Amino acid sequence: MYYLTECPRDAIQGIQKFIPTEKKIEYLNLLLQLGFDRLDFGSFVSPKAIPQLSDTKEVLAELNSSSTALLAIVANEKGAHDACSFHRISYVGYPFSVNDNFQRRNTGKSIEESWDVLRSISENVQNANKDLVVYLSMAFGNPYGDNLNRADMCSIIDKIIAIHPNVEFMLSDTIGSSNPSSIQELYSYFKKRYSHLNWGLHLHSTPYEAASKIIAAKEIGCTRFDSAFGGLGGCPMAKEDLTGNIPTELVLEILEIDKVKFKTKFPQIQTFINSLK
Fold first, then answer.
1. Among 22, 79, 177, 186, which is most exposed with the fewest C-beta within 10 angstroms?
2. Is the per-residue pLDDT at 277 higher than 80?
3. Which residues does 31 contact at the CB level (< 8 Å), separation at least 6?
């Protein structure tokens, strides 16, 4: 059984031209009809940092009821407090980079400074009876030339677990630097070492490498995938040239998931994607 998270938040966050709120609402409500396990719909971060997501609260207010759980990304204590105030949000996601350089760029805090932030986020999440997802950003490499060994990553992971024992981890290939071999090695290592926790993959890729990455993840037994229709997206805080998400349509094909319920909505999804190009 596979667990799929559709990530329109990640798909649109780096687009400079502001997408009208009404258009976002229409698209997200379309996605909510498709039966994903989770929808990464928005982010409670500074509008100066990510202008495209400055209307997350307004968007949330207009989303239709669905069996799909809503996930919101936060970068600090205030964002967590805001996200946890909405009963409709089930998951709070926090990007914790294994690279100090990127943690500073993405959250405004060093790794060392982020421990107190994570403690506060964990407290908010637990008090609101929600689930925490930590994205291990730059897990497969970074654009800064910084090296990080597996022992250092385990040290970070151990500290995160000590703060929030039932955390879910997503190994995140923030800039698309992973390959089939590194995906299988890293995922299998952490899945085995921390077998009591849920592990998934949030991969980015160039179009011609996406299929091999999904196949590699499938072969190693990964069951949790983040993706975005059209392969849109990329983190604007990582580098200027964005590397898109894994395309949802390709994930559905390779994982051999019944696409009947999706196909009827593909034309509308494609229309939205085309409007952004």
1. 22
2. no
3. 6, 8, 39, 68, 269
- Split into its structural domains, the chain has a count of 1
Task: Look up the domain containing 37 and give its range.
Answer: 3-275
Question: Looking at per-residue confidence, does 206 or 39 come out higher?
Answer: 39
Taken in order 70, 137, 201, 135, the sign of the CA dihedral is: negative
**Residue 190 · residue 232 · CB < 8 Å:** no
191: how many CB neighbours lie within 10 A of its CB?
18
Q: How far from the centroid of its chain's Cα atoms is residue 258's Cα?
A: 23
Distance, CA of 203 to CA of 187 (rounded, Å):
12
Q: What is the rounded average pLDDT for all residues in the chain?
A: 93
Q: What DSSP assignment string belongs to 222-277?
A: --EEEEBGGG----TTT-SS--PBPBHHHHHHHTT---HHHHTTHHHHHHHHHHT-
The DSSP-derived string for 67-87 is SSEEEEEESSHHHHHHHHT-T
Cα(75)–Cα(82) distance, integer angstroms:
11
Give Cα separations from 233 to 159, 183, 227, 245 (angstroms).
Answer: 30, 20, 10, 5
- How much is the pTM? 0.94
Give me the phi and psi of 256, to 5 degrees please.
55, 45
User: How many residues make up the chain in this entry?
Assistant: 277
Tokens 């590397």: give the residue: 243
In one letter, which amino acid is 7? C
Q: How far is CA 74 from the centre of its chain?
A: 11
